[in-house]
Amino acid sequence: MSYNPFTLSGKRILITGASSGIGRATAIECAKLGATCVLCGRNEERLRETMSQLEGSGHVCIVADFLNTEDLHSMASQCGQLDGIVCNAGINLMAPIYFLKETEVNQVFQTNTFAPMYLLQALLKARKVNAKASLVFTSSIDAANPDVSSSAYAASKAALTSFMRSCAKELAPRQIRANAVHPGLVETGMKHNGMVSDEDLEKNKELYLLKRYAQPEEIAWAIIYLLSNAASFVTGSVLTIDGGISIN
Amino acid sequence: MELEKFVEQFAGQFFDTPAEMIKPETEFRQLEEWSSMTGLCILSMIKDEYGFFLDPNVFKQCATVEQVFNVVVERMNG
Q1: Predicted confidence (pLDDT) per residue in A179-229, tens digit
Q2: What stretch of H or E contains A23?
Q3: ∠ at Cα A220 (A60, A125), nearest 5°?
Q4: CA distance A184 to chain B (A)
Q5: Quick check: A148 and B45 CB within 8 A?
Q6: Which fold has domain A12-247?
């Protein structure tokens, strides 16, 4: 039985932030479904760790800082023709509005919002994005419903989701699709930046209808759906994967 | 690091509670204005003023302002 509309066989997928968490899980699962992965990030050692866990062959790592114009052009020349791009790299900032600092806010927007914008622009200009390609942006439920102390992070992710919609409109003539995932909290090192006690984390989990946070793979599978031909009529959409907290 | 200055910084995280109501022995979670948001502001103040995130599990164990001061001093000296 070979029928599988979710297969990524024959697709070349670029994934940013693949050195940990959702990005690493996405790379591993994409490779299992037959994709050739292009892993991008700043930390070569951690990218290689992800690479060592990928099934199949032909995967590559490109060490690049997307905020560096030279790195962007170099990366675009090395990445090959792409059928999918997962803009996943991101950082969190948990600080009450009263304590926001310009440098930290800038860093959050640079990484979460501006880097994916310039990355995509560089890839489009270099003609590396194939017709019918799928773009997936890892945003957050905070984009629609910010939590306390997440103002800068939430704003950066809301901007990213908005950028996704612009991509969907501008790239539709080439049948390129753009979508975002809005995960709730995931069991990665990024949750709450260590500013919440274990007791409060457990209370927070109770707000989720499923009474737990997501595993990175559970977000990766949603990303894979959007990358696959199974989502061939899905563009400009947000897929919320939050264990039901948004309706609680 | 002085207790008096720390109490002042601590009191600065409350908007409606008069500063003179915040003393070393004050059980701050019993104050009417207290909320989890105030707690986040205090942890952020400690990060800004003393350069580290106080473990929220440790913070949770502190009942009075002076107990918070003591764990901050302990961390600074450790």
Answers
A1: 999 999 998 765 556 678 888 888 999 999 999 999 999 999 999 999 999
A2: helix A21-32
A3: 50
A4: 20
A5: no
A6: Rossmann fold (3.40.50)
